[in-house]
Batch of 2 targets.
Target 1
Amino acid sequence: MENTLIAFRNVWKTYQMGEVQVNALKDVTVKLGRNEFAAIIGPSGSGKSTMMNLVGCLDIPSKGEIFLKGRNIALLEESDLAALRGRTIGFVFQQYNLIPGMTALENVLLPLEIQEIDDDTAEKRAKELLTLVGLSDKMQNKPSQLSGGQQQRVSIARSLACDPEIILADEPTGALDSVTGKEVIGILYRLWKEKEKTVVMVTHDLHLAGYASRHIQLKDGEMVRDEPNKEQIDPEA
Amino acid sequence: MKSKKILKIAFNMVKANKLRSWLTIIGVIIGIASVMAIVTTGEYFQEQVTETLEGLGGDTITIVASIPFQVNEDGEMVKDTEVSSEVAAETEEVAPETEEVTEETEEVSETNNSDSIEPESVTEAELTKTDVFTLLSIPDVEYINVNVEGGAELTFGSETTSVGVKGVDPNFWPKLTNKKVEQGRMLKSGDKSVVIISKELSNDTFEQEIRLNQMILLNGRSYRVIGILEKDEGLLGGLKGLFGSSIYMPYKDVYSLSYSDEDMPEREREVYDSIEIKLDEGADYDAALKEIERKLRRSRRVTEDTQDFYINSPKKTIESTGKLINGLTAFLAFIAGISLLVGSTGIANTMFTSVLEKTKEIGIMKAIGAKNKDIMLIFLCNAAMISLVGGIIGILLGTAAVQVILLLISIQMKVPFEFALSLKGTVTATLVSIIVGLIAGLVPAKNAAELKPVDALRYE
Ligand SMILES: Nc1ncnc2c1ncn2[C@@H]1O[C@H](COP(=O)(O)OP(=O)(O)OP(=O)(O)O)[C@@H](O)[C@H]1O
Ligand SMILES: [Mg+2]
């Protein structure tokens, strides 16, 4: 059990749409351990994003319990949960979600500033990460001065800032062309392979899901498949 | 999150929306500046008026004789003698030994009824030595000065003009007045045929300046100028000149000023136009006023309704004028406060817009670990910055505006310009600007902080 980072126990998520109730997630029980590369797959509206938001502790379940590193998130104070989330989880969004008023460097610095890391260490780390994703020459660019792929790389650098154990990526390649998309997947793959991070990625694209080591399939809010990917491919190959 | 970083983010937010921030700031500036200007100007006026009124009499109490007018049932104004005659009639029954006196009064009242317009037929209320003795018996009274007013033809060289003359008690007037001599000396006991004149009379009245120790002629009699008074200073100094006299002399001399008009009878001796009282330093002012009124009523045998004297206390006037100005200032400040309120609504409005605009960013920040408190502080600091900048500029502008107003007043009134800044106004404006900014920022900041990260992220 020590290996478990996130555990769902009979998790339901119900949205109230006026008179109708939408069960976005139905009775999902799942565990995510260290150094896993999971792909959540399923058709549109099957509850993938809903599940990611719960994994990332951005939302709370309607029913059931979620444990982050063994702690029931429903029982955590808002500020403790925020701190835990900030240190344990890094987010990569489909729409990059960089802060438009800040440069690439400032965007990567932000999580470090939130965690009150001292300025020198933070700056050193942010620059390292931007170099890692190949943007050492674009640090002072604002998001509007970067291409989509570059923005997504900044976003990956930002997700790594506090050296989290889990990287959550909701359709990280959704807004990118296939070549750039593959580059981004390559980075995530290396994070799993070399840095031993847990990577959870939502994707429509079954080909991209092929890079993951585990497949979790959703259908109408139900988890219909959860198995290791026996034909995992290496993007570098 | 460290406060340095929060401030940085908040400052960047202000900077990122320069136009909107400045428009909001302008609203605050106008509010603060007008509150400042009004409070300071109000305080300045209060000070000036108080100073002037104090100059007119300070804490001296003045008593003048007056027959009170009463409104009778028909709504006509009648002299009060009628009422006193009724009182007298009552007295007749109670005390028959005063019969003679009462009959006299009745006679008077009859003539009075037939022709009440003729002033000679009325027994005029007078202030006499008896009143002075009555007043001296009050322990709180320190000095008493008596005034006898008169008028005379003043001749100096070949020119002549008519002037008002004020007779004062040479022993006590110098102790009780706040007038000071610029040249020469004040009156003292035993002075006779000497005068003290005002600076204006000395300088401006005749072609030739009247100098110290020169002789002037009043109704043909000659008097020596032994003192020239200082000119009255201040905003309303000129006003004081209107009330002041230009010639002061021992009151006994006023009786003997023979009138050029031969028909006028000579003034009755030891009858005064007014009595001025200075109380002991530690005296209870209000209690003393009451005591004076009570004693005088008793010795003059009058009641509240028939009272034939009037007690004028500048302190009361100062108080009531002060209250009036205070009220007026408060009213104007209230109106200025409304513009401050509008300014703060502007802050709130800007903040709400910012929060809406930044919803997605709030979601992002929360996703990467920001606490509600951090978000709250960022928006509060944003509001505080706007109100602080508005406050500082508003205070500077308000101060400048006050100086311009005071300069215009000083030019208009021909008095020297004085820098004035109300501490109360400044502190109030600063506090209000901070409080207003915080309150206006609080609700939007709270809204921002309490956004659920999922909802905030979904916001487009
Ligand atoms: N905030 C919400 N309010 C109401 N219903 C919602 C909300 N979020 C999601 N849903 C509903 O929950 C269901 C699952 O949505 P979700 O976003 O998880 O799907 P998804 O698998 O991510 O789809 P996609 O691949 O299109 O992103 C959908 O039917 C959706 O309409
Ligand atoms: Mg989705």
Note: The longest helix of chain B spans residues 314-357.
Target 2
Amino acid sequence: MEPGHGLARNYPAKPKNIYLFATCLVDQFAPGAGMDTIRLLEREGIAVHFPEEQTCCGQPAHTSGYPDEARAVARRQLGLFPEPWPVVVPSGSCAAMMRHEYPKLFADDPALLAQALELSERVFELTEFLVHVAGFRQADLGPACTVALHTSCHARREMGSHETSAALLAGLGRVTVVQQARVEECCGFGGTFAMRHPDISEAIVSDKVASLRESGAERVVSADCGCLFNILGRAAKLDEIAVSPAPTLVGEHIASFLWRRTGGAEQ
Amino acid sequence: MNQPMHFHPADGFAARSRAAVNDAGQRKNFRGAMDFLQAKRRAQFPDADELAGLRELGATIRRYSLAHLPRLLEQLEAKLTANGVQVHWAENADEANAIALGIARRVEARRIVKGKSMVSEEIGFNHAMAAAGIEALESDMGEYIVQLDGEAPSHIIMPEINKTRQQIAELFVDKIPGVTYTEDVDALILIGREQLRRKFAEADIGLSGVNFAVAETGTLCLVENEGNGRMCTTLPRVHIAVTGIEKVVEKLEHVPPLFSLLTRSATGQAVTTYLNLISGPRKPGEKDGPEEVHLILIDNGRSQAYGDELLRATLQCIRCGACMNHCPVYARIGGHAYGTTYPGPIGAIVSPHMLGLDATYPLAFASTLCGACGEVCPVRIPISDILVRLRNEAQARPGSSDASLRGSGAARTKLVSAIWRGWSLIYSRLGLYRLTSWFMSRGRALSPIEQGAWTRSRTPLIPAPKRLRDLIRERKP
Ligand code: SF4
């Protein structure tokens, strides 16, 4: 998918049922964000179905130069959503993978391609779904606070969901969104890039941490766990090095932030 | 100094990029320069719809030109020949230099003055001329500075972008006799000009690049800001233009949209100071212009890209440099770390065709695939898709249908392939995934605190005590 081009899409009416594709990172490392996603959707009157067989979208292999391995994994996910319900993904990056990369991965197999194209049409990033399909409009019940929004590059350039994340935050009356410098720049994660080019990755994420701290925001929220782990992990490491008594940067998945602000109990 | 021709940028990319990110001074220079160029470009495109429309038009013109490339090249040659321009074809860098050298010998040239040309860098022109005892002097201010310092350009539009004003001032004092130290930009430019003016008069040959070659009219378009390009192509008695075979467009009216995209994307200028349209040598009765004009059309691996449906888009490039100006990796490591003539995202996707994928594949991996490059590319090259494809090629099994390029398979190792096969097995078999993820959660206390590159810069990533699938199951009545 070419970034920033032809992102406009048609949205269905609010459905009764959806599938949740939670992503491997949320399943293993941030299940709280997954639970908050479910709670947010259920409160909108939508039944959430979690196909047990789901694992990973296949992106790590896809971006590392292992298309066969990516296809093997992606192919498993393709068959998990038999009903014509929307598939909601609490990650712009994984949503973009399923929406834009699956059709490319299966371009040479007509049957799988048809399946990939059909799925592509009903894959939605969480904030995109909340704004455009669920019509999310919950009152902000939290105390006044400032946040910075970090949007993953794929969310921004392939899903356009920086706008829906921002819209959700703007809908919270007592939350002030502050803009960090170079807001649209990558956080330096890039999947296996962080392992392959640790020095460059560290340089990029350190700058991201600095701009978020300088923004003065009390916390950073993002709809992508990969970026969050990278940014917060780097900030925590810098705190360790500086022997900082308290974390200098805190953050969470936007689903958890939204759930808490709009009256959801902390679980 | 130009790069040796068989330079393997793959060697040492990691070390060079590490050194570059640790060079605080250079990091600051690049950051400042990138911020400046990004702001300049942004100011040129206030209207998103206008930009989208113009990019679409630019991309269409370039795709159309490539779709008809063989016919347009023939037409270009015929038209140029009719205009009195001598057209030469070069398969690779050596051939191109040999042709230029042949012309230089015939006209007994001793000095060549050059306008800015990345293709001349690509083929190692200066080096080849020097080896034959011919001086090739850069007359573009940025290229002149780079040449004075014995360096290669670190950016395709602003070759000296890695240097501060102070560094340039010191360089001038060091290399130009009789110069006193000044940091005043205008004064520095005057010093450079003074040196160059003298050389123009002495040059036998002027060498230039080409931004667009128009097939229908046989016109060579040259975009520049300093006027040195015009001097190079009019003052010396022979003008040689060098360019890649992809630069052709069909009609003159295809030039204005591309010109507009180029100047606005590159330097954030609505127009450049000069747009030279060259259509032939001096005609009888004309007062100036060269007696001979030559065009050397260079393939140098472009045919390989041309033959592939996706990779052909690489040749749409108009060399604006916007992709590097917006690249988070380029901003951190600068141009020299790449080791190729063309750095940044365009360098990563075009260099494999020129130098072989075996020599260049690390560049394809030196990207987070953030997509900033493709987003700003004025001719809509799907750079991220091409990077992914090159990664696949680099790790393809040699001899398999996935290995289609020169040097494909060079990155493949048994160990890494086995790791990905294992990964794929785990994530495509639910039973295996359940088992491994269950162990990771239950055994989280045993999670490694040392996680390689990750924990060198970050705190460790520890699995949650319960997976999402466990939490969901527990909550069901
Ligand atoms: S790839 Fe696109 S952005 Fe990069 S130099 Fe070429 S035309 Fe410009």
Note: Residues B 317-323, 346, 376-379, 381 surround iron/sulfur cluster (CB under 6 Å).
